[in-house]
């Protein structure tokens, strides 16, 4: 009997070629989709065998349904079983309750994988990957792109139909980034060859006609042939196999039943009793389920079952050969037998401290008495995993709902909890449907308010502030709303109102959330204070923004718990950045991001990247800022948290304009318009400025002015755009003057002056006021003062912009020495920051008048790897020296996501595919020169 794979020549070639490339230093990912029995597992085994031949390490594991409540168990199990054995992943055997936190475990895992892959190529194989636990699924999303430059090959296989499972969602996300492999049924020729391999002889028409009923599914064909061989219904004469007999199996289930029926009674009972288990079977568990037999007495039945091909042995114990075999054996059980065995399995699982969801699953199938206990267990388990695995928690609650029935009195409260969990998991449609179903019923006031809270949270996660505010208002208007729920509703209302540009309502709701939350729900108090910080920031009250964020941070640090999950350091860092206190802002971002990793709060991940991008932009590190913002967009899309996407895209558009990549800016603007058309909100002035800045860069001053017309009228009361981008004040003046509207130009000047007067400690605000006034009045002294203020504020982009305007005035006055001095300074700043759009504008304008000489041009002599930016080059050189991405991140004081982004661009620009090729390229270009 041959185990040769037939009918998969193309797929095998793809995987073998990929593994050959991995041996040479390239990474990558392949996702295989196909129905049960189609041959995915056999293909994975073949890939593993080829990896062994190439001396590529293999880490493989099959995921199981109950993996989902044990964080990182799927991926950890694969890596701990790595062949050849290694101590690099031994730490994964530690407790799931690692005090370092789940996201910190992913970061540590990435470090371990980078170190391992720097020495030996690695193949990671996960079969039935749709059952991955939620943290493993998140890790796969994070690690596949992060490790793309290492020789790490991912091979993930899945059946269709599990669309709500986190593992399936991760695979679906990956399948839009790599070309998936879809396994279809075998054609007639492949079926014939499969039969002949299985039989060991040529197959005649009687065999082929019979296996036609298997629908081209190879496992069904194999099991049918094995059944025919076991019952002597295949006769071989002159090298040709023929089917004989009248009572032939007509389906796969019948085939399995025939095979099982040929075994001894003890072996049959072994199969039926253990079919209620979802994972590997050990002999002690089998003995208990079979009625407390002596385990030693089961060796004979086990040998029979294994010899029949229905059970196989692996490193974890006995398993059914395939899920279809498992299902076929389960179908033999009567309802009474099934309930009895599941009751026993629940007791056994509880004694062995198995995951609560596994115990509850058995209880649910053990009859009415077990269902009640299961609901309580499911709710408790959901509460325990909600912070780190909201999708899993939501599925557990949905399972509890199915057990309760339509009219159970517990149902409304369970729905209320489930709606919020679905919202956290990004399953907005499902949350809305379930919430609406509950609201149509006769609910207690407190439960009704809790359902509305869940719906408000759902729409807030989706970035749809209109709906979030509506549900919050309706919830607050109801009677007998518990104070903790009221506090949380006010907090949502505050942030939604801010997103809708109603600053007064946002501040009022934030204050009420703070007042109520201090006594009843500290997390709501923290959230209310951060909303007030946002309002103060938007209104240009920078000291107040810092005070509110600082108070929120102190409260969260003191009470811990859910308050810390609100991550107020996000807004503390924002306020510190606006005040020019960059080192403090960076410390707050670093500490806060570490806490976020430890707590596993996925919604906050994109915000850390956003505010780090804002900080890096202020400091003139544009390439690093773009990498951070890009990572933030990617994480927001991974977690379906669309609220921060519009600000992130707005930041990327500003960076695209500064860096001179207008095509990229147009694409990003299209994405913003798609999101806003779908109801996702964003700061209005930033949405308008995203389009206006592109038009201005393209030379359409009038079009840019028209987009910003409403902003002029509100910028005095809401100078948020000037706080984050001080140079915009002068741009607004120029646009208004070009449009023949000096009145609106004066509004921009007045807004900048008020902002500076209200924030005397902000040198950036002083620079913005001087810059705007200098452009309006064409006053060289004010522009010179603006250059000085921006230099003291350490804002190189704004300093370059003010210097450019000062050089322009000097040119108009015929003062070539002053123009040259200002031009050279601005050009140096632009080049150092990576602002190639500014550099080109300076060259095309002032440079054409001044001539080619100047300090700025001297700074641009081609270095090593001249096609790379100043941010990408040091990353490339350190990687070429053999450093891992995490080590590079530490050395350059960057986030690993930033290093990943730079390295992807390095590979693309240099047209290379591996770290080995990069090292060779650097060696070729540098020769014996010392790399600096």
Automatic annotation (TrEMBL):
One Pfam short name: GerE
Organism: Actinoplanes couchii
Keywords from the UniProt entry: ATP-binding, Nucleotide-binding
Keyword Acetylation set for record: no
InterPro entries, alphabetized: AAA_16, P-loop_NTPase, Sig_transdc_resp-reg_C-effctor, TPR-like_helical_dom_sf, Tscrpt_reg_LuxR_C, WH-like_DNA-bd_sf
Keyword Nucleotide-binding (UniProt): yes
Protein's name according to its UniProt entry: HTH luxR-type domain-containing protein
Domain HTH luxR-type stretches: 858-926
Superkingdom field: Bacteria
